[in-house]
Specification:
Order of helices and strands: HHH
Protein name: 2-oxoacid:ferredoxin oxidoreductase subunit gamma
Oligomer: single chain
Organism: Caldanaerobacter subterraneus
Largest sheet: none
Structural class: mainly alpha
Keywords: Oxidoreductase
Number of strands: 0
Helix content: over 70%
GO molecular function, one term: oxidoreductase activity
Radius of gyration: 10 Å
InterPro entries: Pyrv_flavodox_OxRed_cen
């Protein structure tokens, strides 16, 4: 949400950083959570 509102970090950069740090097998779940956060940020 904060990344979407502030625009300090691009959506793609944040996605790449998150996916490098999450446990194997949880990438898709975390990608979906990140997408939901960006959607919430766009509403505000």
């Amino acid at each position: 949400v904060i990344a979407e509102i502030t625009k300090i970090v691009s959506e793609k950069s944040l996605e790449m950083a998150v996916l490098k740090r999450v446990p194997a097998g949880t990438e898709e779940l975390n990608r979906k959570a990140l997408e939901e956060g960006f959607k919430l940020g766009k509403k505000n």
